[in-house]
Amino acid sequence: MTIDLELEKKLKNLTIDSKLLTMKMFHDSGQGGHYGGSFSSAEFLTVMYNGILKVDPKNPKWEDRDHFILSKGHVCGLFVAVLALKGFLDEKVLATYDEINSSIGMHTTLKIPGCEFAAGSLGHGLSAGVGAALAKKLDKKSSRVFVHMGDGEINEGSVWEAAMSANKYKLDNLIATIDRNMLNYEGETESIMPLEPLEDKWKSFGWAVKTVDGHNISELYTTLSSLPLKKNKPTCIIVKTIKGKGIPCMEGVWQYHYAKVNDKDFEEYYKLIEKCKCN
User: Fold this and answer.
1) Rounded CA gap, 125 and 117, in Å?
2) How many CB atoms sit inside 10 A of residue 5's CB?
3) In whole angstroms, what is the distance from residue 41 CA to residue 244 CA?
4) Sign of the alpha-carbon torsion through 133, 141, 144, 93
5) Most buried one in 62, 144, 186, 274, CB count within 10 A?
């Protein structure tokens, strides 16, 4: 399904708004945050919640909803910004980011309205997704399960055990998406633990696979609205991105996996992102 220009413009502006809310959370908390992976996933998460997922912000536990599991839970800041813009929670709550007893921290918790999975230790989201997708099959539900992972995260063996199970049970209602920004918190993925040829790896595990440009709203929408890729096969979408997208000094720099910026730099980066909005 192709996207119309009005919706594309709306999604682009929502992406910018989500980044601005995230930056403000990180800065006002005094703790900083995970800029790199948050900004590489911004378009993807915005498209998912405003064009793809079957969810109801007024009824987060709706029985027939699509499940979205954010396995790379350190992207919590951007994630809650997207949820707030969608209406799952009041934007005022974002001001409590990383405070003691707040529902919003540096990683996802089940205290966040609309959050399906508490993530801290990476590598477990796909296993949970397989279980949820299998349950939907057994209950004859038409809804789907999406699991968003980081590319560094898929070094974990549990990911590949889950991948084998998904193929065995023919879970075509399961979609794994990978933020392929080529970096983890220590450096380049291909230097630390090579992943390529990544498409071939997932295909060899019995998945239908496609690679997309993770910063292209139109391409994301067209691909994600036309799933599954193949009947009786789980789908893997490799989302090619740039870590820290939108702030030049952060782009493609692994040291910005997590960062705390000073007041001067924050003002500069904030204005830079704000200028990207469509009129």
Assistant:
1) 8
2) 8
3) 9
4) negative
5) 144
157-166 per-residue burial string, b: 16 or more CB within 10 A, e: under 16: ebbbebbebb
Q: In which residue are the tokens 């969810």 written?
A: 55
Token readout for 130 is 């397989």
- Cβ atoms < 10 Å from Cβ of 10: 17
Beta strands in the chain (DSSP E): 67-70, 145-150, 174-180, 208-213, 235-240
Q: What is the DSSP string of 218-250?
A: HHHHHHHTS--SSTTS-EEEEEE--TTTT-TTT
pLDDT digit string (tens) for the chain, length 279 residues? 789 999 999 999 999 999 999 999 999 999 999 999 999 999 999 999 999 999 999 999 999 999 999 999 999 999 999 999 999 999 999 999 999 999 999 999 999 999 999 998 899 999 999 999 999 999 999 999 999 999 999 999 999 999 999 999 999 999 999 999 999 989 999 999 999 999 999 999 999 999 999 999 999 999 999 999 999 999 999 999 999 999 999 999 999 999 999 999 999 999 999 999 987
Please report where in the chains the tokens 């496609």 appear, as a residue. Answer: 210
